[in-house]
Amino acid sequence: MTVSTFVQESRRGELATLIIDNALGRAEIALFGAHVLSFTPHHDNRQRLWLSPHADLSGKKPIRGGVPLCWPWFSNDHGREQGELPSHGFLRSQIWSLTDTEQKDETTTVTLTPDHTRSDGFDYSADVTLTVTVGRELEVALTTTNTGKEAFTFNAALHTYFNVDNIAETRLEGLTGKYKDKVSNWAEVETPSPYTFSRETDRIHLDKAEQTTLCMNAHQTLIRHYGHDSIVVWNPWGSAASISDMDAFGYKHMLCVETAITQGAVLQPLDSRTLKQIVA
Ligand code: TA6
């Protein structure tokens, strides 16, 4: 069904999706998780996002690939026993509603809102909206507003899976300083230069870089970051074999570069914070 000239309702597996296709680019968003599944600008027709061929599209499990939304905690940092609450929070596993579409110049923006923002592990009043703008670039912005009477602390991430031609020949530019290394018991380690990949990588960079670049042999993907306090870099490498919705070699073609709040952002009543990633 047509929502507007540039926005169509569609389906992927058992999921309802929106296809945005305009003069500059094309993207698909699942309403389950307000999850951006793909983005291809027309000028080079190159898919920027990686979606696992084994992603569960039944709506029963978060989608492996695209742009998962983490909120109001990151990973298992929810203050309870691991496994008691869902990894990365509860926004990515609920059905969102399309509340607005806007056409400006040649870009299209859709606004989505989740069904609920209060759940086990987060007992505060908050409004959350996601806007996705599709043009020559993809812009994804997650805004949290405190609508209650007391301050709360939250974490969040745009956990984007990027397509890479070959991870062993990919370089990440733009990060310096220290990162916290999940695969070495959270040791603080200096960012390598050049930043290349040859093993499992799971890092929280405390660098608030505004731009990072994925450099591949034939092309580059530019990633701009806003409203974050850290950048997370993840590739499971050999542990991909134990991830049910990824095949053993899936790690070769993806890298997560995540615009994230991992250090706890405090939001006072009526205040808002927007976490934004722009992909070019
Ligand atoms: O962002 C990195 C990370 O937190 C990793 O530690 C890894 O577990 C990954 O996210 C995927 O998490 P998920 O819950 O989607 O399987």
TrEMBL record:
<dbReference type="GO" id="GO:0047938">
    <property type="term" value="F:glucose-6-phosphate 1-epimerase activity"/>
</dbReference>
<comment type="similarity">
    <text>Belongs to the glucose-6-phosphate 1-epimerase family.</text>
</comment>
<feature type="active site">
    <location>
        <position position="258"/>
    </location>
</feature>
<dbReference type="GO" id="GO:0030246">
    <property type="term" value="F:carbohydrate binding"/>
</dbReference>
<dbReference type="GO" id="GO:0005975">
    <property type="term" value="P:carbohydrate metabolic process"/>
</dbReference>
<dbReference type="InterPro" id="IPR011013">
    <property type="entry name" value="Gal_mutarotase_sf_dom"/>
</dbReference>
<dbReference type="InterPro" id="IPR008183">
    <property type="entry name" value="Aldose_1/G6P_1-epimerase"/>
</dbReference>
<dbReference type="InterPro" id="IPR014718">
    <property type="entry name" value="GH-type_carb-bd"/>
</dbReference>
<protein>
    <recommendedName>
        <fullName>Putative glucose-6-phosphate 1-epimerase</fullName>
        <ecNumber>5.1.3.15</ecNumber>
    </recommendedName>
</protein>
<dbReference type="InterPro" id="IPR025532">
    <property type="entry name" value="G6P_1-epimerase"/>
</dbReference>
<feature type="active site">
    <location>
        <position position="159"/>
    </location>
</feature>
<keyword id="KW-0413">Isomerase</keyword>
<dbReference type="Pfam" id="PF01263">
    <property type="entry name" value="Aldose_epim"/>
</dbReference>
